[in-house]
Amino acid sequence: MLFNREKVTLDYKMTPDDNKPFFVAMQAISYSPAVLGGFGPVAVSLITNDGMYPKLGFQYVHATSDFMFFGWLIGETLKDPDVDLYLYAKYTPLISGNTRLFAQIETNTAFPAYSGGEPSLFQCLRLGLMFNGFQAGLGLDLTQKGKDQLKTTENTGIFIRYEF
Predict the structure, then answer these.
(1) How many CB atoms lie within 10 A of CB 82?
(2) Would you list the DSSP string of 142-158?
(3) Nearest C-alpha neighbor of 44 from the set 91, 100, 3, 88
(4) In contact, 129 and 138? CB cutoff 8 Å
(5) Which domain holds residue 111?
(6) Which of 64, 104, 144, 146 is 20 to 30 Å apart from 112, CA to CA?
(7) 8 Å CB contact between 122 and 142
(8) How far is the C-alpha of 72 from the C-alpha of 65, rounded, in Å?
(9) What is the pLDDT of residues 112-156, one digit of tens each?
(10) How many domains does the chain have?
């Protein structure tokens, strides 16, 4: 399976010092032979505003015509690594003709594998319609980060995307 995702988040509360644009590009390649029942190795490249992070681990995939779920447990291969638990689920039942409901949840929990790190959690919720590969609707992104005191941010708005 090849998974490619780019995302840019722009916050209307943006200032020169806070709520700056956020960019992430994630590419994953995995191999899940039928004999393993959806499980297999995965290699992930994550590029953000903060840099590039190559990661390796294992994943599980299950897909039907209306539903897709995959998740992986991966570890960063550079210094000061994080261990990530990533889950993605998408439900797209047919409404009529070429129109489908689009419901998606995506979560990533990063646990630091070193003493100075901060855990971080990210949740992305999308609900809208899908027509000929285009999706549009309402979205909510939640981010929590911190060790002793949790810093939380949220971004609510519309989303537009195209699925190849």
Answers:
(1) 22
(2) EEEE-SSS-EEEEEEEE
(3) 3
(4) no
(5) 2-162
(6) 104
(7) yes
(8) 21
(9) 887 778 888 999 999 999 999 899 999 999 989 888 888 888 889
(10) 1
